[in-house]
Amino acid sequence: MFVLTRELRFGVMGCAGIAVNSVIPGIHQSRTGKVAAIASRDIGKAQETAAKLDIARAYGSYEELIEDDDIDAIYIPLPNHLHMEWSIRAMEAGKHVLCEKPIALNAEEAQRMADTSRSTGVHLAEAFMYRHHPRYSRIKEIISSGEIGELRGIHGVFTFNNAADTTNVRYRKEWGGGSLYDVGCYPISAARMILGTEPEAATVQALISPEHDHVDMMAAGILEFPGNVALTFDCGMWAAFRNSLEVLGTEGRIEVPSAFLIKDARILIHSEAGTREEPQEMLNQYALQADEFARAVWGEKCSQFGPSDAVANMKAIDACLESAYTKQRVLVRQ
After folding, report:
1. Which part of the chain is the GFO/IDH/MocA-like oxidoreductase domain (predicted)?
2. Of 1, 86, 99, 185, which one has the fewest beta carbons inside 10 Å?
3. Model pLDDT for residues 148-159, shown as the tens digit of each residue
4. Candidates 45, 52, 95, 101; catalytic one
């Protein structure tokens, strides 16, 4: 039986939907974490959210939150253009930071955040919750076993339709809006994680919408990896919902029907022998993320996905965005 000997006390910066509906409940369900405070620039909203989610303290400014000595770590679900500023301010105040994806607007911002993490000695992680589910370790085991042969490619998709909500922060270009930032980052990070290497070049075609402040509402592309392996992907905020990943080999393929938002935990392995289904436990990915974060903070294990991983992911996204807007193949900065 697991016995809690200590807990990581989180402060949440903002009342975004991802925080209220997923991350805060996940931290509450984790073995290691507790949400002790929440802040909003609207104190009434902070108090309402705190009461709803059983959070002890509510603040009317982000500054008050990072000055709270009873907070160990800050979770940041603010609009993308605020990630760097408030992550750095929190880290400089001695707080560990779990920042929503994408960690920043570009690799330069992400590097500044990584440098601050190093200089202050606090932990910084990007909140890709799906990576913490054990099915991805199992996928890598299957690949390593040779069951599907040599890898030939990865295909990932993540789309949804929210285009009618034209006031959404996802549709503010200067705030880091667009589908590559919002959902394209998932298959990009997954391919990097599975392959264990960094992409070399990107070619992306995008639907740029004047109705949505000229952000990419849909994007489809290819990321070239070493060894003549590629990720093909599409992402969008103006299309029917999809959320899947496929790993293709010379002798078979692995299908992940619910790759990022977990509604179906199965892994399907297709080969010449037929199709084998491996059920996986329906675990709360947000709780797993909180536990991994806490253990990295406490030095109990090395983080699988530290600041350098976040910088590398932003380099890939930078190249995809440049390709989408210039309609050219773009090399990924190494």
Report:
1. 136-255
2. 1
3. 999 999 999 999
4. 101
